[in-house]
Design a protein that fits this description.
The chain has 309 residues and is of the alpha/beta class. The chain has helices at residues 3-15, 18-25, 29-43, 59-87, 100-113, 126-134, 196-206, 224-229, 239-243, 278-288, 300-307; strands at 48-51, 54-57, 92-97, 118-123, 140-143, 152-166, 177-178, 187-191, 213-218, 235-238, 253-257, 263-271. Strands 3, 4, 5, 6, 7, 10, 11 and 12 form an 8-stranded mixed beta sheet that branches. The chain has a two-stranded antiparallel sheet with strand order 1-2. A two-stranded parallel sheet has the order 8-9. The longest helix has 29 residues, at 59-87. 30% of the residues are buried.
Length: 309
């Protein structure tokens, strides 16, 4: 059994498709099939159930894959540690976040404090974050949705109210607060499933036995406020968007939601047993050892005059 066999098995197990795995690995399909066959012969058990050209990971294959993933991750971590020690730098830290607006001030402050750190930033939804952590593609995720698993650790960074943003002149412009039933027939601008804004919207409406009416589903959460301002609908926007000064550029009216748990909880998540470079360790210390951002939300009634263009 060698590393090449294990890498090939991992790819075939991920795709459950020989040709797709061969394409990723850039090897011929017959060669890949023979390698998997030799591995199964050495283990004394088939790892896949085969039906014609279709293959499915069986229970022995799933068991073996868990060990292979851990072993290859450890080797990758070892290579990374040696490379970073050789380069005499702080090393690399990879961070995934659902919205870049949330994390860019933090990363800017970290780079200023640790200029020798190599910072890589990824924009990902919750499902992609889970995959990236498992594959060790990132060290940390700054998540607005729970990422669960026995291999993960997390710490809460902050929580904030989520407001309803409406275009100026809308019937709700000037209201202090609204209930879900009062906006049941309003078209919503939101993100696709997998992003926290959509998860929150669906949860709030489901608590009232309702389904939201959607006018726009997008992949870029930061664009929602622009579309709301343009009159394409209303939407749930985190308080950070207002505090970041976007209201002067993209003017909207803000309304409190009279609904339980209409807030966002931001957490820092990482692999419990994963290798962390010096840069990653400093990033965790930097992030968890300081206030992430102010929790105080301006009162829309007091500041409405300042929001108008």
């Amino acid at each position: 059994m060698d590393l090449l066999q294990l890498r090939y098995f991992q790819a075939v197990a991920r795709y459950e498709h020989i040709s797709r795995a061969a394409e990723e690995l850039r090897v011929a399909q017959p060669s890949l099939s023979r390698t998997i066959g030799r591995l199964e012969a050495e283990l004394g058990s088939p790892l896949f159930d085969r039906q014609g050209r279709r293959i499915r990971l069986n229970q022995h294959g799933a068991m073996f894959l868990r060990h292979v993933d851990r072993a290859l991750s450890e080797l990758d971590d070892g290579r990374r540690a040696v490379r970073e020690a050789r380069d005499m730098g702080l090393g690399r830290v990879g961070v995934a976040s659902e919205t870049l607006l949330t994390i860019s001030p933090l990363l800017g402050s970290f780079r200023a404090a640790c200029p020798r750190a190599d910072v890589r930033l990824f924009q990902s939804n919750a499902q992609e974050m889970d995959r990236q952590l498992r594959a060790r593609e990132v060290d940390f995720c700054v998540a607005s949705q729970p990422l669960t698993g026995t291999h993960l650790e997390s710490v809460e960074l902050f929580r904030e109210e989520v407001l309803l943003a409406v275009p100026y002149g809308h019937r709700l412009d000037g209201r202090e607060s609204v209930t879900i039933r009062e906006i049941a027939d309003e078209p919503f601008v939101t993100t696709r499933r997998g992003n926290w804004q959509r998860a929150l919207l669906d949860r709030l409406f489901a608590s009232e036995g309702l389904t939201p009416l959607l006018s726009c589903e997008g992949d870029e959460p930061a664009a929602s406020q622009d579309m709301i301002s343009a009159g394409l609908g209303i939407g749930l926007i985190p308080a950070i968007s207002r505090r970041a000064g976007t209201d002067s550029r993209v003017p909207v009216a803000w309304v409190h939601m009279d609904a339980p748990d209409c807030h966002r909880v931001l957490t820092l998540v990482w692999n419990r047993d994963g290798y962390l470079s010096e840069a990653a360790l400093k990033f965790r210390e930097f992030t968890t050892g300081r206030p992430f951002m102010t929790h105080r939300l301006p009162d829309p009634r007091r500041e409405r005059g300042h929001d108008r263009p």
